[in-house]
Amino acid sequence: MTPADMQTPVPDLLNTCLQLADEQGQRHHDGLDATGRGEINGVLRAQSLMLSGAGQQCALNRYQMALVAAHGGGILEAAASERHGYRPLYQNVAYSQRFQPVPGACDQLFMAHNPELLLIAVRDPRPAPDFLEDGDLEPVPFAEGAGRVHRGFYHAAKRLYERVSTCLNNGFGGHKVLMCGHGVSGAIALILCQMLRHRDVQLYTYGAPRAGDATFVRAAQSLTHYRMVHHHDPLPSLPGSWMNTRLSTYHGHAAQSFNHTLPELGVFVAGLGALTGELYQHHGALCHFMPLVSGQESAHLMWAPTSDIVTQHALSRLVFEKVRDRPECDGMVEIGLGESLGVDSYVAGSWAAFQRSQAALEAREPEVTETEVRAVDLAFEHIGQQLRSRYQAVVSEVYAHSHEQERMINLLMHELSRLHITRQRLYDMRFKVPSVAEVYGDCVQQP
């Protein structure tokens, strides 16, 4: 189901006129014409994309920014958005307060502004494999700060920096910056944001791969970054040390399927991440979209798990199937990036999460049901039992090389620890009722 198939409930708490298209594509004009402009009580008005400028994450921005990442300026005009299968949220504002395109944009960059916000979407058209060649994968010093970054993403960010910096220095220096990007564009946007770190910048990424090393990530801790990952998208697991590993590494005890659990938690491959830490690290606050029923995105968790069984599910599934289906093969692990998810999957997931947040706020209830929590927790209980059995088997087995046994023991112990933390975060969600600000940000304060 796409956003165009659903009607958005407008909560009484939101004291703002949301201009929404109904199922027949008819617009409630309230004095505005088909382009979203008009005069009301002698004041020129317009429909403008609704976005919060508050630093706190909110479900509204997560959805709206996914649309911006997907369609750029295509959603600025309310009439234009009706041609697509999505439903942005607009508000009725004075004509001078509307979002307007910034001159000087290019194919890789969309920019728009209102009197308070500068909206930037990085939209590099190149496919992910173009950034995963050996030369681009090499980490290079981040000249504008600390640490090392992915060469390909860095060069792309540097090509955009001058254009964005010039814009900020010519009339937009006092604006808050909202930036977004999907896939490799999200990684480019992260580096670009750190180049602009002395500005007031908030970043929303969707399915972005890793872009910098641990030093870069630590230096960027002050950057407000909300990182959305879809459960079925392997691209966020790149680049990784597993790319230089042979399939035989994951034979035996490393690859495991689980019984009596949810399909979304059915496999685990130990060692996809290095125990001592990956060269490339993730930055930002994780928003992991995990469907609970295949094909039904309305039943989901939007959360921040730590277990690789959850966060590395897409990659684990692909590696597990390669090991299972071709046990004689001992080539390097290769994952076809045709398996990565397009931005539309992130729009749909953000929409489902936004709708659930709205409903929970209106009902004064948590965003997850007791039934969902029990189902996931029971799955984790079965997984924990099977991981402990695997651990005992590894301890009891005689290995030709003791360091291989020690490595597997440590990997299983590490995952059991992260599984415990993930279950605690699941429990905490049972009692968390979203606030108005967590759903709508500062939009509730607008007249």
CATH class: Alpha Beta
Oligomer: single chain
| Inertia-based shape | globular
Mean pLDDT equals 88
| Beta-strand content bin | 15-25%
Question: Low-confidence stretches at least 5 residues in length (pLDDT < 50)?
Answer: 1-29
State the helix count: 12
Radius of gyration: 23 Å
Please report the total strand number as a whole number: 15
Q: Structural class, please? A: alpha/beta
Q: Which second-level CATH architecture applies?
A: 3-Layer(aba) Sandwich
Question: What is the string of helix and strand elements?
Answer: EEHHEEEEHEEHEHEHEEEEEHHHHHH
List the domain count as a whole number.
Answer: 1
Q: Which percent bin holds the helix content?
A: 25-40%
Spatial gap, N to C terminus? 33 Å
Largest sheet: 8 strands, mixed
CATH topology: the name is Rossmann fold
The largest sheet has its strands arranged as: 4-5-6-9-10-11-14-15
